[in-house]
Amino acid sequence: MTFGRREFLKGSAALGGAALAGGFTCIEIADAAPIEVPTIDKLTMRVLVDSSHDQFLRPAEVQGVKHLPPGSGRGPDYRLTLHNQWGLSLFLDSVRGDDAKTIMLDFGYTPEALFNNIDLLKVDIKRIGALIVSHGHYDHFGGLAGFLNKYRSALPADLKLYAGGEDNFCHRFTGSANQLLDFGVLDRRDLVAHKVTTVLAENPTVVSGHAFTTGKIARRSVERVLPNTQVKFEIKDGLGCDASHYTAAELQGKVVPDEHIHEHATCFNIKDKGLVVISSCGHAGIVNSVLQAQEVSGIKKVHAIVGGFHLGPAPPDYLKSIVAEIRKLEPDVVIPMHCSGGNFVREVQAQMPGNVLPSTTGSQFTFGA
């Protein structure tokens, strides 16, 4: 499948025209030229939303990566506590010399949980310079519209949201083809209303001068997309995704199995440490995601593999083989979150016992100096 600027603009002419008529450019296409990967000194990652909270976790350090857990997760009022939900949101602070940048990656399932945790963790939203959405699943963008409603005025006027490509805006469903349940759609009309520029980053893209995205992830390992959602390729009145470059069945408006064509990973290159690869869900394969990061950056050393790896539904033999492939990548540390699965955690602890750090809602991880 190929995707070009001409096809996108054709499928989204009404939306783009409306935005331009209002004097606001809502769409950018990431350049296809090779990127120059930035090197940073330090990355601090705060887990705003994840699927669970463990108040008994203690501070730890593995292979130079420091973990500061949130303890009880309660505020000064004992009735207030961190909220967990099936979803993920990460607050990423990076430093290079005197230059500090902040990126927000994904937004959890609901704005209510996100707001609650932002307040309890005392996160300074005003530091955010860019937003990234990893893929088009509601548990990763569900809190976005509410987040913009509440905080847009505190964010930069030229705020950009980096999406992996047009597929991120497709309408998705759960269940079988015979009994589909709505799973939502990322509505770019909300982004236009809040004057957020969408960058379609099908190609690798540098974000805020500190991070980079992998672009479209090549399927080159033994991994396969495990059971998840169904997807419909169409756009009506600005809602949905352009289908002009997909298959005949998709062009007919049929609902088809979801291949997460434009899911991308967010990465940092830490000075003297190597790559931190953040795979929010890893439907394209966590090994594939790391290999893609290595290829586009030209950097082989992997310091950390972080995030959701979507291996919860993996059968034992498949899971064992994938952890073996992760081990071959020789990461200093693996930090499972969200959809990685308890089965994955047990297997990676068995195969790589000295390279695993636990995570919980409210965790803070520090990479580098």
From TrEMBL:
Cross-referenced Gene3D superfamilies: Ribonuclease Z/Hydroxyacylglutathione hydrolase-like
Annotated InterPro entries: DHPS-like_MBL-fold, Metallo-B-lactamas, Metallo-beta-lactamase_dom, RibonucZ/Hydroxyglut_hydro, TAT_signal, TAT_signal_bac_arc
GO molecular function: transferase activity
CDD domains attached to this UniProt entry: DHPS-like_MBL-fold
Domain called Metallo-beta-lactamase: residue spans: 98-152
Top-level lineage group: Bacteria
PANTHER family: METALLO-BETA-LACTAMASE SUPERFAMILY PROTEIN, METALLO-BETA-LACTAMASE SUPERFAMILY PROTEIN (AFU_ORTHOLOGUE AFUA_3G07630)
Protein's UniProt name: Metallo-beta-lactamase superfamily protein
Organism: Variibacter gotjawalensis
